[in-house]
Write a structure and sequence with these properties.
Elements: E1 12-18, H1 22-31, E2 36-37, E3 46-47, E4 52-58, H2 59-68, E5 73-77, H3 78-84, E6 89-94, E7 104-111, E8 126-129, H4 132-141, E9 147-150, E10 165-170, H5 174-178, E11 181-190, E12 192-196, H6 198-202, H7 204-222, E13 226-234, H8 238-242, E14 252-255, E15 261-269, H9 273-283, E16 286-292
Parallel strand pairs: 1-4, 1-5, 8-9, 8-10
Antiparallel strand pairs: 2-3, 5-12, 6-12, 7-10, 7-11, 13-15, 13-16, 14-15
């Protein structure tokens, strides 16, 4: 068979966010079961799945390239989807960020001694931000006429000399406080989204591939703050032990070969384990084993 008659290889073109979300995204994919290799200077992560071709793209640009069909799908923040006003299919919300699992916030911040107290005080003022388009639309919807300047970075240092206020991304507010800024309002909360090109989404093979990836990613995220517990329990203590267990669902119980003994397996929030294990031991559980989870699929 010559190469011309061979079936065309099916490939999903996936965009991964370069920058602040890069490491957390690669870590999430690895936990979801994908082996990824990326050399220091490369923009093309290599997946162990031959049906995935990926490249690193700044999150700010991702939605535009997905909309245009350069990429079939990608991961980026809701903030950048709204800022670019891109027409894409939102496949899944993935609640993770650079430092944690809470939504990030775009806030309006001003110097501590500024007379600006509310959004209305921004009328006629100069604002620096990377989120130019969304900020302009948002303020216009509030009847506020302000000059919005694009900031190439280091936005926190712009006030008071280069701007009256900034609209900046924050997870904890630490950097803003360190630069003597105070928050007067939040204009947007954002989480990471898995988005798809609308034409690619109509392709049955690509759609199934994307849905499977999202299933694994969501399963990996669901496992982040949970652990598994295994233990042996005698029949006489089973009711007492079960009363101690806060579970996602009913725990799995299996009878052991030794009469009157059961194996109990449960998934719980990791933060509960420290206080829970002593109570389980006291209630009669033995051979208690805590283990990490890679994925939890509902």
């Amino acid at each position: 068979m010559n190469s011309a008659s061979q079936p065309k290889k099916k490939v999903l073109r996936l965009g991964l966010p370069k920058g602040s979300l890069q490491e957390s995204t690669l870590k999430l994919f690895r936990k979801a079961g994908y082996r990824i290799e990326l050399s220091q200077r490369s923009y093309y992560p290599q997946f162990d799945d031959p049906e995935i071709e990926s490249m690193l793209i700044r999150a700010q640009e991702m939605a535009r390239y997905v909309e245009d069909g350069v990429l079939d799908c990608g991961l980026t923040g809701l903030d950048w989807i709204l800022d670019s006003n891109a027409s894409v299919k939102e496949v899944a919300e993935l609640r993770y960020a650079k430092e944690g699992f809470r939504p990030v916030r775009w806030v309006v911040a001003v110097p501590m001694d500024s007379k600006i107290k509310t959004l209305k005080d921004l009328n006629g003022k100069r604002i620096a931000t990377e989120l130019v388009n969304f900020t302009r639309r948002f303020l216009k919807s509030k009847g506020i006429d302000a000059q919005i300047d694009f900031s190439w970075g280091a936005t926190e240092v712009k006030p008071p000399y280069l701007a009256d206020a900034i609209v900046e991304l924050t997870e904890t507010g630490t950097s803003l406080r360190a630069n003597n800024l105070r928050i007067i309002d939040t204009i947007l909360e954002s989480t990471t989204r898995f988005i798809a090109n609308k034409e690619a989404w109509k392709d049955p093979w690509k759609r199934e591939k994307m849905e499977n990836i999202c299933l694994l990613l969501q399963g990996a995220l669901a496992a982040e703050d949970k652990v598994g517990l295994k233990m042996n329990v005698h029949e006489k203590d089973l009711k007492s032990v079960l009363s101690q267990l806060p579970a996602m669902h009913s725990p799995t119980i299996a009878q052991l070969t030794e009469a009157g003994w059961y194996d109990l397996d449960v998934v719980i929030d990791e933060k509960l384990v420290r206080d829970l294990i002593p109570r389980l031991k006291k209630a009669g559980a033995t051979g208690i084993v805590e283990y990490q989870l890679n994925k939890v699929i509902p």
